[in-house]
Fold:
Amino acid sequence: MTITRLVLFFDAVAYIIATTFFDINTVLPSFIYSVSHSEMWIGLAYAIKQIGFVLPQLFMMTKVHHLPSPVRFIWRVMLFDRPQWLFFLLMLTAGVGREPTLFSFFFCFTLFSIGEGIIQVPWMDLFGRSVETDRRGRLFGWIHVAGNTGALVAGYIISKAIPDADHGLPADYLPVFTVGYLLLLPSLLFFLQARDRAPQHPIYRPSPYSSQSQTGFARLPSPRLFNSRSPVRSSSSPPPALTAVVSIGTWFRHCLGNRNFLYLTFCQYALSLSLLVSPYYLIAQLEKPHVDLSMGDMIFYSIAGSAAGALLFGYLGDKKGNRSAMITASALALFCPLLFVLCDIITSHERLQSLLVAAFTLQGIASSGSLSFFNYLLEMSGDRERPHFVAINSLLQLPVALLPLAGTMLRDHMGDTLTRLVVSLSAIFGLLLALYLRDARQPS
Structure:
């Protein structure tokens, strides 16, 4: 294993463990609710995470192949989006009150989401170039074995740090966020040791303006005119912003013309409707009497399920293909809301506790299903197409950011049970789409 693979391996493992302490499905909803006592802020956090993560990828899609040093670029973005969590921790330590605490959290969380969105495309492109195709599945598997083993330990720490659902104090989360923050810092120390085997000059890519067509622009001069030694740009070339827009449009049409990409996107839409209910599973149980599980216990079972799910989908993707993993993920997404509906119906105290353990564990497993979708996207695209497929796919998932906000309104008007049944019906549609996908590892 080369030094670059080692760096990417340890960076990914540290990231998985660290973000467990900032988990958007469990820890952050409970923290935000303890500070604001409003579910709307939980939906806002999901929207910020999705939008802040996706929009930078659209910009990076046209820039990733022109970065003079992708490794140094990624490191600089890490330097921008990770140390600022210290400001939030200081606010928690000082006990400045609920409103300043909430403001400092959303400020740091927004910067972090944007920074990680900027990193996503060059990181995955670096991974794709540094790891041979036949080794990617195995390396991803080891990343998730190590990362989710650490995440399981993290879940145990979280369950002990937040043992009581009635605390409602922001300072109770200080140990959790501190450990997560410390785990984000090592990448700043060793990431520069990675080496990119790609050429250090921009890769020439055919421009949509490279011939005189309906665009009305003349043929561009030789690409050698635009190397790093010659800052002069020919007057016949179009503005860079216009070039970027047309390039994005060209790749957008190319992606949507791919049948597997289209089925994958609609399958993701169908399963993403789970965001109407999943952020509020934990909050809904805390509002009910006769639930003995503490907040920390419910978070632990969900994180344990997420760790087990990552191993399950990694194994299925490596042995059976990511199409099989997506079919399994769709089936689990179908049964998860139904299990929580059953928890609302059961009146037996003992059976309720057992069902809640099973429900939160299954929720965690189902939430890891996105791993198989992303791995399938990497498999179906070549080195040249990969950054654009990743960015366009993320762009198409942008409306999903509003689902948690819509979920708060649906729960008020339709109730939890009916909303969960709608989510299960959408998962059936996602399962059918997953069945129509071809195995990306087989030649077309």
User: Anything to note?
Assistant: DSSP finds 18 helices and no strands in the chain. The first helix runs from residue 3 to 20. Confidence is low (pLDDT under 50) at residues 199-246. The CA atoms of residues 137 and 318 lie 5 Å apart.
